[in-house]
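Exercise 7b. C-alpha cells:
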C-alpha cells in the first residue's frame, strides 16, 4: 500500500512544474505520521528522487530517529529568544539546496519571532513556490475552524493552528489511522513518550473517549475534503444559488471567533462563498470607539479573512436593516449570529433586539443563532507541544484555490502606479479603463454606483487589497479592471498599504454573476504566491501572464485524497 502511494506521488513529481504538497494527516501524536513520511522519503530516494529532510521532530522516539538515518538532513537554524536557545528550520538553506522533495514535519508549528515567516506552513509555501515538492505532517486538531469543536469535545485548547485552506490546497492527503487500542498499547510500551510522561498522558489527552472523538473528527474531515473536491469542478460552472453564508459581527459581541469558525465549516459543506459583515454605527466610528474595542474588532476581522471570508464593513444606524439589505444584494441564504447580550426587562419592552428583528423581518433567509455564552476553560497544551517561550499568535494569510480570472482581463484594463495615488484617482482611472471602448454604459453611471457602494462601507480592506464593485444597468457581461499600487493609496488608512485594487462591474439584472466574480477575485487576492508575482510585474502583459501561470500551475494536476487504516 505504501509503495502504491509513493508511486502516485512519484508520478506527480515528474509531471509538475511547481512544488506539490502532500500531507500525512492524523488524529493524535503517535499514530505514525512522521514514520510514514520518512518511509516515503526512503522510497523516493530509491527511485532516484533527490530527497532531503528539511525539518524532523523525533520527540525522542528511537524508531523514528533510526528511520531518518540515510536521508540527508538540512542543518537547523539556531536562534536565541528571550535567553532561550531554539532551533528552527533553515528555509534559506532548503531553498539554496533546492532538492526535488523536502520532508518537513509539524506543519502547524509557530516560528520564533524574527523568523522569515511567522508560521511553518508559510515556510512551506515559499518552498513550494520555488518548485520544491513537500511532504509534511499534521494533526487534525490544528485546523483553525475546528478549534471550538476540539475544545468542546476534548476540552483542549490548541495553541498552534493554521487556516483550513492549507489542507484544501494540498495535492494529496493521506489519513494515517490506527485503532485507539493499538495507540494506547504503543503509549504504554513507551513508543510515544518516555516512561515519566505516560501516566499523565493517559489520564489527560490520551483518554479513550478523547481519542475516539478525535479519530471520528479526522474521518469526518477527510470525508468533507473528498466531497468538496468531487463537487469542485461542477460548482465552478454552476450558476450561484441564493445560499451564500453570512456572519453578522459585533464589535463587542462575545466569542465572535466561534461564529466565524462555525460559518467557515458551514460554507465549506455547501461549497459556497461566505461573508463576514460588521455594521459600523455612528457610535462606533473610528474617531469615537475606544482603542481596546478597536483591537478586538481588528483581530476578529483578521480571523475572518484567515478563514476565507469576504470581509465587509457597512455604515448604518439600523443594524438589522443593513444586514438584511446586504443579504438581499449578495443572495445570502443563511445568516449566522451570536446569542444577544442580556438586557434589562424594561429595555426589551420598548425595543426588540437585533436578533429578534432579524428573525421577524428575514424572508426566505435562515437565521442561525449560535450560543456564544461559552465559558473559557483553562488552557491545556496538546501533548506534542514541548514547553517553549511565549510566542504571540501572528496574523495568518489564507491561501485560496485557483480562479479563472485571466478570461476577464485585458491589457487596457490594467493600471500600475509607481507613486502614491489617491483613492478617488484609483477609482476613476479603473472605471475609465473598465468602460473604455465598450460603448455599453456611461462612465458617470459607473462612478455614481461605485461611490454609493463606498458610502455604505469602504471596500479598501486592511489586508492590502481593495474590492470595489457595483452592479450596472445595461452591462451585458462582467468587467474586471486591475490596479497595482507600488507605494499604496495615500488617503486610505489600512493596517497594510493597499497593493492591489480589483474593480468589478457586473450586470444589474444578474446579481449571481457579481457573486461568482467577486468570489473568484477574493480567492485570488488572498493567494500569497500570486500576490508576490504581481508585486514584480512591470506591465499589463506581465500581470495577465502572472494570472495565467498561476491558474495553470495550481490547476495542472488533480488533487487526491487517500486513506490508510
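Sequence design result:
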Amino acid at each position: 500500500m505504501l509503495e502504491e502511494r509513493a508511486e502516485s506521488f512519484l508520478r506527480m513529481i515528474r509531471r509538475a512544474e511547481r512544488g506539490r504538497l502532500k500531507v500525512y494527516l492524523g488524529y493524535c501524536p503517535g499514530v505514525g505520521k512522521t514514520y510514514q513520511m520518512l518511509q516515503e522519503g526512503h522510497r523516493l530516494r530509491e527511485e532516484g528522487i533527490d530527497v532531503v529532510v528539511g525539518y524532523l521532530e523525533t520527540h525522542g522516539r528511537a524508531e523514528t530517529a533510526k528511520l531518518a538515518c540515510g536521508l540527508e538532513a538540512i542543518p537547523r537554524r539556531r536562534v536565541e529568544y528571550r535567553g532561550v536557545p531554539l532551533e528552527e528550520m533553515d528555509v534559506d538553506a532548503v531553498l539554496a539546496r533546492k532538492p526535488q522533495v523536502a520532508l518537513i514535519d509539524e506543519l502547524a508549528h509557530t516560528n520564533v519571532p524574527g523568523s522569515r515567516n511567522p508560521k511553518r506552513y508559510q515556510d512551506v509555501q515559499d518552498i513550494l513556490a520555488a518548485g520544491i515538492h513537500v511532504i509534511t505532517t499534521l494533526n487534525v486538531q490544528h485546523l483553525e475552524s475546528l478549534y471550538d469543536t476540539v475544545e468542546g469535545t476534548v476540552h483542549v485548547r490548541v495553541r498552534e493552528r493554521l487556516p483550513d485552506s492549507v489542507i484544501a490546497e494540498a495535492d494529496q492527503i493521506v489519513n494515517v489511522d490506527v485503532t485507539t487500542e493499538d495507540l494506547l498499547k504503543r503509549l504504554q510500551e513507551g513508543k510515544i513518550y518516555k516512561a515519566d510522561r505516560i501516566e499523565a498522558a493517559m489520564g489527560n489527552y490520551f483518554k479513550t473517549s478523547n481519542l475516539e472523538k478525535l479519530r471520528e473528527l479526522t474521518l469526518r474531515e477527510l470525508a468533507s475534503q473528498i466531497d468538496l473536491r468531487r463537487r469542485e469542478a461542477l460548482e465552478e460552472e454552476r450558476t450561484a444559488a441564493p445560499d451564500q453564508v453570512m456572519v453578522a459581527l459585533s464589535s463587542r459581541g462575545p466569542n465572535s471567533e466561534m461564529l466565524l469558525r462555525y460559518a467557515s465549516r458551514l460554507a465549506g459543506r455547501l461549497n459556497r462563498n461566505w461573508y463576514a459583515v460588521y455594521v459600523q454605527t455612528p457610535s462606533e466610528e473610528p474617531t469615537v470607539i475606544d482603542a481596546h474595542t478597536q483591537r478586538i474588532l481588528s483581530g476578529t476581522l483578521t480571523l475572518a479573512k484567515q478563514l476565507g471570508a469576504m470581509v465587509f464593513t457597512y455604515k448604518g444606524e439600523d443594524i438589522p436593516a443593513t444586514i438584511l439589505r446586504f443579504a438581499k444584494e449578495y443572495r445570502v441564504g443563511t445568516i449566522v449570529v451570536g446569542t444577544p447580550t442580556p438586557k434589562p426587562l424594561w429595555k426589551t419592552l420598548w425595543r426588540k433586539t437585533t436578533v429578534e428583528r432579524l428573525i421577524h423581518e428575514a424572508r426566505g433567509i435562515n437565521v442561525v443563532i449560535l450560543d456564544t455564552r461559552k465559558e473559557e476553560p483553562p488552557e491545556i497544551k496538546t501533548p506534542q507541544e514541548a514547553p517553549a517561550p511565549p510566542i504571540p499568535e501572528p496574523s495568518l494569510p489564507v491561501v485560496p484555490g485557483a480562479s479563472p480570472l485571466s478570461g476577464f482581463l485585458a491589457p487596457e484594463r490594467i493600471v500600475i502606479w509607481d507613486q502614491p495615488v489617491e483613492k478617488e484617482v484609483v477609482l476613476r482611472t479603473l472605471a475609465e479603463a473598465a468602460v473604455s471602448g465598450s460603448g455599453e454604459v456611461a462612465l458617470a453611471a459607473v462612478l455614481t454606483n461605485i461611490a454609493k457602494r463606498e458610502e455604505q462601507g469602504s471596500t479598501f480592506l486592511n489586508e492590502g487589497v481593495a474590492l470595489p464593485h457595483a452592479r450596472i444597468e445595461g452591462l451585458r457581461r462582467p468587467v474586471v479592471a486591475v490596479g497595482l499600487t507600488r507605494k499604496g493609496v495615500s488617503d486610505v488608512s489600512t493596517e497594510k498599504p493597499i497593493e492591489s485594487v480589483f474593480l468589478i462591474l457586473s450586470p444589474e439584472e444578474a446579481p449571481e454573476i457579481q457573486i461568482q466574480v467577486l468570489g473568484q477575485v477574493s480567492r485570488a487576492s488572498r493567494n500569497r504566491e500570486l500576490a508576490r508575482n504581481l508585486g514584480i510585474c512591470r506591465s499589463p502583459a506581465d500581470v495577465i501572464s502572472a494570472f495565467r501561470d498561476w491558474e495553470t500551475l495550481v490547476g495542472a494536476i488533480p488533487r487526491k485524497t487517500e486513506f490508510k487504516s
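Instructor comment: The CA atoms of residues 479 and 505 lie 5 Å apart. The two ends are 10 Å apart (CA to CA).
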